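Moderator note: this is an archived Q&A kept for reference. The question asked for a predicted structure of one protein chain; the sequence and the answer are reproduced below.
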Amino acid sequence: MKSIGITGGVGSGKSAVVDYLRDHYGAYCIKADEAVHILEEPGQPCYNMLLKTFGEGILLKDGRLDKKSFASLIFSDEEARKKANSILHPAVKDYIRLKLDEKKKDGTEYFILEAALLIEEGYDEILDELWYVYVPEDIRRSRLKESRGYSDEKIDDIFASQLSEEEFKNNCRRMIDNSGSIYTTMKQIDRILKNEKKD
């Protein structure tokens, strides 16, 4: 089994790359954000730790995490974000390790993990390689305004909090240029995987 981490700046189209790998290569795909949502549910590992750290004010009436309020809290408070990350990130990594083991036993050919923080969280330690989905900032900015309605100020804040293009390139084995058509992106993926099968 080959395990690949897909990363890149916000608005780069990581999901389009992941979807293609799933639909055309039968890859098992998981997003780190989805793992977080699973681990935050009542009865799951992170739930009680978050409750103990942040109090019942982060819950909805039914006892589940109020994800919208919790997201606002951790994005507006650096200390709260550090505390949440110290709970969630190690748990997500453990969850991904379990999934990796499970899929190896199943005979899965490709295991794909999508996350913005693959490099920062050291996922190169557990995945075979990282791929960087590259799109120039001006195109990403335009996409984020159009698809998500983000303001320039919000986009500036997000860009400032993410790794630079150089850091992504230096830490990833492959780069997929997703600034053109989806067809061009698909061809790059096909070429990479085809060449690797030859090696």
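Archived answer notes: Residues 119 and 171 are 7 Å apart (CA to CA).
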